[in-house]
C-alpha cells in the first residue's frame, strides 16, 4: 500500500439540516438514546440558526435548523426534507489536508476557517461532494470544550439512557445511474481512498429492481463510504425512490456499530423504532448458508436481525424504516465478528422487504 496522502483520524460528526432542530434532538434523545451535548442559537449569539449536538459512544450528530425562510438550511429542507448536509472527518491539519484535496481536484466550498474561544481552537473547511452534500474537515487537537466555539454545553437534566450504539461503521450515498464510477474515482483521486468492494446488479437484484454499489475506504480502514446507483429493472428501485423524494443524490443511511445487537434492537423496538422485516423463510435459508455461528437463531428471527458470513468472520445487521415521512434517510445497526463485509448475502432478502414497503407507498 502506498503512502496515505490524506490521513484521516476518523469520523468527527454528521450534520443534519432539519425543519425543527429542537424536535429532532428530542426525537434522537428519546428514541435512539443520544445525549444532548451542546447547543448553538439565539442564546449563544447565533442569529440565523439553531444547532443541537447529540452524542452516544463515539457517534456525534448535529441537528441544525434556520430561523428565517430565506436561508440555505430552509431551502435545503424544502428541497430534500430532513437529511444529511455534512459528513465531518477529523484530520491532524486542515490546511494541509485542504491543500492536498484542492491539488487533486476538490471543489473547495469553505476555506480553512479557525474559530477560537476560552477552550481553544477548532479549524474547519468544506469540499463539495455529491448533490448538496459536503465533506467537512475538522481539526480539534487543541480544543477542550464540549464541541466547538459558539456552542454552549448542555447540562444533563437526567441520567443518559443510551441503547448501545458505539461508533459509525459506514455512511452510504445514493447517486444517479452512471455517477457511481465518477464518485468512486473522486474518492480515490481526491481523498486517497481505495475500493474495498464492488457489487453489481447480478449481486443485488430481485425480479423487479436492482442496484450497483462500490465501497470506498480510507487508508486506515476507519472510514467507509459505499456509493449506490440504480440499475435497470422492471420497476422503480429503492435507489430511484430515494432520488425522487430527496430530489437528488445524498446520504441514504448511516450504519452504527453495537457490542450487543440483541439488547440494542430490543431497546429501540421498545422506543417505537420501526425496522424492515424479512420473511421468516430467510432464517431457514441462512442457517444452511451461514452454518455454524455462535448466535441464538430463534432470537435473531424474533428480532428480525440479519446474518452474513465471509472468509474473515460474520456480521449481524438490521435496518430501520425511514425516520421521516419522505422515504429517504434510514439507519443500520451492525455488530461485526471479524467480517469486513456489508451483508451481501442479505441483499436479496432485504430488497424484497424494501419492495414490499415501496408497494405500500405506491412507489414500486
Q: Can you describe what's shown?
A:
- The chain has 364 residues and is α+β, with helices and mostly antiparallel strands.
- It has helices spanning 21-30, 72-80, 94-103, 180-191, 238-246, 261-270, 281-290, 297-303, 347-361; strands at 10-17, 35-40, 49-56, 59-66, 83-90, 108-117, 120-128, 134-139, 152-153, 165-174, 194-199, 210-217, 224-231, 250-258, 306-310, 313-319, 330-337.
- The protein has 2 domains: 10-153, 2,3-Dihydroxybiphenyl 1,2-Dioxygenase, domain 1, CATH 3.10.180.10; 165-361, 2,3-Dihydroxybiphenyl 1,2-Dioxygenase, domain 1 (Roll), CATH 3.10.180.10.
- The protein has 9 helices and 17 strands.
- Strands 6-7-8-5-1-4-3-2-9 form a 9-stranded mixed beta sheet. Strands 11-12-13-10-14-17-16-15 form an 8-stranded mixed beta sheet, with helices on both faces.
- A hairpin with a 2-residue loop joins strand 15 and strand 16.
- The longest helix has 15 residues, at 347-361.
- The mean pLDDT is 92.
Amino acid at each position: 500500500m502506498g503512502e496515505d496522502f490524506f490521513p484521516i483520524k476518523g469520523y468527527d460528526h454528521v450534520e443534519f439540516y432539519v425543519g425543527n432542530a429542537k424536535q429532532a434532538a428530542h426525537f434522537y434523545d428519546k428514541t435512539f438514546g443520544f445525549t444532548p451535548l451542546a447547543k448553538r442559537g439565539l442564546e449563544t449569539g447565533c442569529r440565523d440558526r439553531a444547532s443541537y449536538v447529540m452524542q452516544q459512544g463515539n457517534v456525534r450528530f448535529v441537528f441544525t435548523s434556520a430561523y428565517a425562510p430565506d436561508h440555505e438550511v430552509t431551502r435545503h429542507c424544502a428541497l430534500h426534507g430532513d437529511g444529511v448536509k455534512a459528513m465531518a472527518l477529523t484530520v491532524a491539519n486542515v490546511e494541509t489536508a485542504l491543500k492536498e484535496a484542492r491539488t487533486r481536484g476538490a471543489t473547495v466550498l469553505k476555506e480553512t476557517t479557525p474559530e477560537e474561544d476560552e477552550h481553544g481552537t477548532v479549524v474547519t473547511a468544506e469540499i463539495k461532494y455529491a448533490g448538496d452534500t459536503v465533506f467537512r474537515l475538522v481539526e480539534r487537537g487543541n480544543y477542550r470544550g464540549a464541541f466547538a466555539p459558539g456552542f454552549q454545553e448542555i447540562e444533563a437534566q437526567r441520567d443518559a439512557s443510551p441503547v448501545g450504539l458505539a461508533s459509525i461503521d459506514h455512511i452510504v450515498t445514493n447517486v444517479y445511474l452512471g455517477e457511481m464510477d465518477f464518485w468512486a474515482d473522486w474518492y480515490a483521486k481526491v481523498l486517497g481512498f481505495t475500493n474495498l468492494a464492488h457489487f453489481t446488479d447480478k449481486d443485488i437484484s430481485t425480479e423487479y429492481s436492482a442496484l450497483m454499489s462500490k465501497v470506498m475506504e480510507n487508508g486506515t480502514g476507519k472510514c467507509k463510504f459505499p456509493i449506490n446507483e440504480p440499475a435497470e429493472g422492471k420497476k422503480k428501485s429503492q435507489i430511484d425512490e430515494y432520488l425522487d423524494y430527496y430530489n437528488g443524490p445524498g446520504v441514504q443511511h448511516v450504519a452504527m456499530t453495537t457490542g450487543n445487537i440483541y439488547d440494542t434492537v430490543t431497546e429501540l423496538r421498545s422506543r417505537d423504532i420501526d425496522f424492515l422485516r424479512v420473511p421468516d423463510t430467510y432464517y431457514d435459508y441462512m442457517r444452511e448458508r451461514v452454518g455454524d455461528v455462535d448466535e441464538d437463531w430463534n432470537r435473531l428471527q424474533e428480532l428480525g436481525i440479519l446474518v452474513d458470513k465471509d472468509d474473515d468472520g460474520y456480521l449481524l445487521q438490521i435496518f430501520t424504516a425511514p425516520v421521516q415521512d419522505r422515504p429517504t434517510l434510514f439507519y443500520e445497526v451492525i455488530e461485526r465478528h471479524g467480517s469486513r463485509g456489508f451483508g451481501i448475502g442479505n441483499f436479496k432478502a432485504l430488497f424484497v422487504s424494501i419492495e414490499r414497503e415501496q408497494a405500500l407507498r405506491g412507489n414500486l
